[in-house]
Amino acid sequence: MAKTPDVSSFGSMDSLPELRMVLIGGEEESKSSNVKSSTGNFILGQDVFDMTRRTAQSEARQTEILGRRVTVVDTPGWLWSHMREDTPKLDQIEIQNSVHLCPPGPHVFLLVIHVESNLCQHVQQSLLEHLELFSCDVFPHTIVIFTTDTSESDEKIESKIQRTPALQWILQQCGNRKHVLNICNREDRDQVRLLFEKIDTMVAANGGRHFSASNVKDLKEEILAIRERASKRAKEVVEQRKKAKALLEGKLRIFYI
């Protein structure tokens, strides 16, 4: 089941202004790095999301940043080359249920895209179909995060974005709101401060409203049921293998006798 926020230090932060964000985005089949998790760790300033593996379930982490109580929710990614029907059902449910891990709902969705991504021709339909999981239009609450792990100048990065029609289309859907994060330079907290300012500007433009989690059905019970069925099937497979092994060993003993 989707993991609840780490609440070990909530008490000391209750009086701080909140900022709640959900990381979303597609992945390339040829890429092994977990860009969303890296972005979450960069924002939080600590390694709390596992970057060595694909994110299998949504999980939330919270800490104090720049005088604010910040919650970041990491989610499973989908393949840019896939339509929603090709994305595993459990991944879809985990993505959809992510908004319930930062109640009463996120201030912002951060659509994370590595600036070197080679997006396929299906990216537009893939994005639209996967964002439909949230029931309502999330674009007014979305900022595109372009991540880079090189020392390229902002001008070169901007040039790459301008040369890529798919990225231009995505930006248009998100009101041309974007932010570039050099995730290799974690000591540069000005990058995070500027991101917060852009989020605050967007929230103000939305009348101070966050995305309401009440717009999305809470599927915690469905997630639990799916995982229990998968666990049961795995146990049955193990038992079948044990029985088959025992049967084979028994036949071999008879053969050698």
Automatic annotation (TrEMBL):
Taxonomy, superkingdom: Eukaryota
Residue intervals passing through the bilayer: none
Protein name from the UniProt record: AIG1-type G domain-containing protein
Coiled coil start-end: none
UniProt organism field: Cyprinodon variegatus
Alphabetical keyword list: GTP-binding, Nucleotide-binding
Gene3D superfamilies: P-loop containing nucleotide triphosphate hydrolases
Annotated Pfam families: AIG1 (PF04548)
Record GO terms (molecular function): GTP binding
Record domain AIG1-type G: where: 21-220
Family: Belongs to the TRAFAC class TrmE-Era-EngA-EngB-Septin-like GTPase superfamily. AIG1/Toc34/Toc159-like paraseptin GTPase family. IAN subfamily.
